[in-house]
Amino acid sequence: MVDQENQTAESSDAPEPQVSWIIKWGAKGLSLGGAIAFGISSIWSFLSITNLIPCLIAGISQIVCTVLIFVIEVTFFFKNSQSKPIKAALWVASKMRWWLRAILYIGLSIFFVAMCFGIGNLVAMFILGGGGFLYGLGSFQHKRNTGGALF
Questions:
Q1: Which of 19, 20, 68, 95 is the most buried (most CB within 10 A)?
Q2: Per the record's keyword annotation, is Transmembrane helix included, yes or no (predicted)?
Q3: Structural domain contains residue 8
Q4: pTM for the whole thing?
Q5: Is the pLDDT assigned to residue 64 strictly greater than 80?
């Protein structure tokens, strides 16, 4: 079976699967919401006293991953950046397929909750994991003539 993919993506070399708009924008919105939630929960990780060293490492890496997720999802904000790490992340983001984004987002969610368990990280895990789930769902689903159904 031949994989039908959209070849008209402007900013990326990796073709996007043809999925319904609710999955495409839901995955992007949940991923950005999860990045914002991880950025906010990194403050709680810094202030956590229970597991001092693991939570400090988790807080610092959450900030780095928040920027990485923003570079992957909102590439047009970073197109004119002169920073070499941002340019490298833009190149990687342009090659990423949906199934790889799904694995990355779900893996990051599980990793940060395992590193420093807290209610903020748990909420952020569910938001970013939901975005990863929708990316995974979209990588297996193709747009078909369903007569107006959302999925």
A1: 19
A2: yes
A3: no
A4: 0.78
A5: yes
